Amino acid sequence: MNKILEQFNEIGIIPVVVLEHKEDAAPLAHALCEGGLPAAEVTFRTREAAACISAMRQARPDMLVGAGTVLTVEQVDEAINAGAQFIVSPGFDEEVVTYCIEKDIPVTPGTCTPSDVQKAYRLGLDVVKFFPAEPAGGIAMIKAMAAPYTMMKFMPTGGISEKNMESYLKEDVILCIGGSWMVKKDLIDSKQFDKIEEITRSAVKKLNEVRG
Q1: How far is Cα 86 from Cα 8, in angstroms, rounded to an integer?
Q2: CATH number, domain at 146?
Q3: Given Cys at both, which of 40, 107, 116, 131 links 111, Cβ 3.0 to 4.6 Å?
Q4: Domain hosting residue 12, numbered range
Q5: Considering Cα of 98, then 100, then 101, then 102, what sign does the dihedral take?
Q6: Looking at residues 28-42, what average pLDDT do you find?
């Protein structure tokens, strides 16, 4: 497991962020870090994604910032050039995964079936995303699917919140979880960064209670 993924495990919760405007990147970065989660997966769903990654890295050099919803190798290049430290994709795309491996870029591809996990295993990965976590069966599905792959750790994302995070985080097969409840769009749009910090602190408190 590379150092970035070890940091995932240490942090425990990776906020999944959708940013429409570059000017929101720095204050959001500060809110997350001050709240106790120095990490962000910035989704490549907006035109400003790359600029926001760059702005977050500049505002908080101590923060772990990567790109999510990466669908092509071109987006990999764009994200890395902007300062992304890791790549996450919603599904398993062998071209994207292979490209990242060849360039020594930490990559966590999305999986939802044993076949997806098998492909990741054959390419030498030991951590995969499980998406969409709750709709696809939650922790019960992950545990059942993980049984033949004892070397694999999972990062579930999708439908996870402070209400159900404990069911995931208490299991050894889970490296960390991804969530967006502390960075909801309405909070960012209304620039309620103090509220985001507050919710983040609450999530970290719950995380520490679960993991000790």
Answers
A1: 11
A2: 3.20.20.70
A3: 116
A4: 3-211
A5: positive
A6: 98
Q: Tell me, rounded to whole angstroms, the distance of Cα 87 from its chain centroid.
A: 9
Q: How many domains does the chain have?
A: 1
Token look-up 């960390």 returns: 176
CA angle, 70 then 71 then 74, to 5°: 85
Tell me: pLDDT of 1 over 80. Answer: no
The pLDDT-based confidence of 212 (bands split at 50, 70, 90) is: confident
pLDDT reported for residue 31: 98
Active site residue 153: no
pTM: 0.97
Instruction: Identify residue 11 by its one-letter amino acid code.
Output: I
Task: Read off the pLDDT of residues 124-153 as tens digits, 9 standing for 90 and up.
Answer: 999 999 999 999 999 999 999 999 999 999
Query: Which one of the listed residues 119, 129, 153, 197 is annotated catalytic?
Result: 129
Q: Which of 41, 119, 153, 197 is catalytic?
A: 41
Q: Is 94:115 a contact under the CB 8 Å cutoff?
A: no
> DSSP 3-state assignment of 192?
coil
DSSP state letters, 38-98: -EEEEETTSTTHHHHHHHHHHH-TTSEEEEES--SHHHHHHHHHHT---EE-SS--HHHHH
Residue 15: name the closest of 139, 153, 165, 211 by CA.
165
Q: Is 205 marked active-site?
A: no
pLDDT for res 144? 96
